Structure to design on (88 residues):
């Protein structure tokens, strides 16, 4: 499954266009490798996503073509969520 589609369906990022933009700016890694929006996501992959000053690490648990809101969180396991302090 494409990375941008997984992020939208799992509701980590609400819109696919936003997921594509974040990925194409180099803010997402799959298993430590820089990922594009078209990168393939598989079960067991670890995603590292940077949203502004937040870094989210999740493990892919399931791939579905569509989900209900309550089932979306079952598609991944949260490994860590950290805030990055801005040093100016």
């Amino acid at each position: 499954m494409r990375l941008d589609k997984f992020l939208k369906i799992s509701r980590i990022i609400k819109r696919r266009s936003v997921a594509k933009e974040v990925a194409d700016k180099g803010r997402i890694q799959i298993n430590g490798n820089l990922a594009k929006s078209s990168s393939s996501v598989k079960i067991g992959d670890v995603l590292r996503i940077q949203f502004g000053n937040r870094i989210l690490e999740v493990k892919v648990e399931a791939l579905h073509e569509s989900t209900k809101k309550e089932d979306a969180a079952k598609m991944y396991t949260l490994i860590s969520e950290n805030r990055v302090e801005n040093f100016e």
About this structure: The mean pLDDT is 89. Strands lie at 28-30, 33-34, 46-51, 54-60, 76-83. The CA atoms of residues 53 and 85 lie 7 Å apart. Helices lie at 3-9, 16-24, 69-72.
